[in-house]
């Protein structure tokens, strides 16, 4: 009753036997008796040609092998056995005779190769076995096998101590326990003070164990006794474990052997675990308490039990750093491991960022959000239905610990703006290695800008993330100490940079539309702000991309530039910008901070050099300043400049700035940048002098701000002294209100 695949395999095997010219002989074929059975083929393989080296498998001249071909071949992998158990003690031989050919069958086995590829692997295994190269130098050792009987899974999470002498004995703290899983924490030497709570007992060997662990207690005791761990020591440890078992909990025994690592390298502990059920553990506890020197009932009970007991091995799922190579080790997310992060806002972006940080191994994450979980957000925010009504920050913290029990996730049900304003709360916030602003709130962004307006300033990198109204665009910025601006500053810089970029209109339309969107999305009328439309998949895709970019930025050496990047789902075109620090001027008259961009300063110096060449070094020059004023923040940005308008007057005594063409320049800049840049004032030079307003400058401002021709509330005057090579620069803000008193 062969399947089609089994018939195909027999045909291939016949071809192989014919082509090998006697090196492989088919001895016997056993047909499957019923549907689903294996097709068994006994073959003889010539091993005489393989080079033999000390420590290699001592093959006979010919070896008898048993090939079992499953019904689903080639979608199911064949298995191969020795016809005897002489090589049971060698690695890569299991159950005494099974030949372990594949480390990762799901990726190594190629169905299209069939038995041709399979016997190429057999040939290589036999060659390596004879040459003692089954564990080649520098390659991972094949771990020993303890065949799991119990459904219990044991998860060690901390590196083991190094055994000194014949063995190490002690405890492993049980930090978390369910019916199917036990997690182990720190290791405690038997001579140390044992903490209260559940403990597993442990023995760690500096030597190896058999490749296949024994299935009975009597056989295990013989193996341990040969390694200087007597049955008396094992009994004492079992009794200690029983005494530390609580209620109806089983006793857990950890056995370690130095069998992990790479061939030729340091040997680390391979951990195996067995379980003694709660009823038996209670009996061990009772006899340990009842035993006396005259009546050693504990020894009698142990000997009787050990003579007949089968070992209930458990599966060990490794989570020790020394054993496990993290799957994200070489990814950008590796930067976050052990970091302290503060997240402002735990909505769509913030809740996703928090989970990504938990899985990346962040050490401490503090979450701030005053909102609660509502039913409507479950479609795209990482909460469960049972968390409805809970604070978003607290719910996010709980979810993080589900993903990573080691992360310290703290929550604050607080208004982010008030946190920023409070000296005490802000000092806690600033202890973070990184602050992530995921609020999508202009109020929070303004609060950050106001708080860090002073210059120089001191804060960790501040990452801001935002999504477009259909969750198909993302905007990411990073503010650093070396540059004065934070979120508001970088948003407007990004807007200006995009307005000057080719093919960026769609991004401007997304984040800075020319007219307000009239159809606001109101998901929960009366209790939710208009937000964006988009699914969990949309949010996660864009947020994950922003996190990777932020990781790459942060992994670089301390950067002297702030950064921004925008991108769109399904569009490979990204816009990337960075800005060096502005020239920061302090206005002593009305308390404004003036931020002059490096490009604006370069423009002024270029006009100065031109004037020096054409008119001489003593003639004043100047022009118009374009930027933006924020009355609340008391910041004036100078982004662009012009040279002297054509109707200007230039001499060694003064510079009188003309007005011809200024209105047109202002209209062009305001339209191009969507009102981000417009007229803010004038600049001029004081060659070979200090950059202080002269009596002429003060009279000009008085005339300008008391007259009817100029209607603005304020006027910025920037003066550049010395010369273009070594400029000295100052800024003064003149308010109309100053002349109305």
Question: What does this entry look like structurally?
Answer:
29% of the residues lie in helices and 25% in strands. It has 741 residues and is α/β, with parallel strands linked by helices. The mean pLDDT is 89. Helix 6 (278-290) runs antiparallel to helix 7 (297-308), helix 8 packs parallel to helix 9 (392-403) and helix 8 (348-360) crosses helix 15. It has an eight-stranded mixed beta sheet with strand order 16-15-14-17-18-19-20-21, sandwiched between helices. The chain contains 18 helices and 30 strands. It is elongated and about 110 Å long.
Helix fraction, binned, reads 25-40%
For the CA atoms, what is the radius of gyration? 38 Å
Distance from N terminus to C terminus (CA atoms, Å) equals 108 Å
How many strands in all? 30
Write the layout of secondary structure elements.
Elements: H1 4-20, E1 24-30, E2 39-46, E3 62-69, E4 79-82, E5 93-94, E6 98-99, H2 105-108, H3 114-130, E7 153-156, E8 168-177, E9 181-189, E10 199-204, H4 217-225, H5 231-243, E11 251-260, E12 268-276, H6 278-290, H7 297-308, E13 313-316, E14 340-344, H8 348-360, E15 364-368, H9 392-403, E16 408-412, H10 416-421, H11 423-429, E17 434-437, H12 442-451, E18 462-467, E19 473-479, H13 487-499, H14 505-511, H15 536-555, E20 562-568, E21 571-579, E22 583-586, E23 593-596, H16 598-614, E24 622-630, E25 635-641, E26 649-650, E27 655-656, H17 662-672, E28 678-687, H18 695-706, E29 714-722, E30 727-735
Parallel strand pairs: 7-9, 7-13, 10-11, 14-15, 14-17, 15-16, 17-18, 23-25, 28-29
Antiparallel strand pairs: 1-2, 2-3, 3-4, 5-6, 8-9, 8-10, 11-12, 12-13, 18-19, 19-20, 20-21, 22-23, 24-25, 24-28, 26-27, 29-30
Helix pairs in contact: 5-6, 6-7, 8-9, 8-15
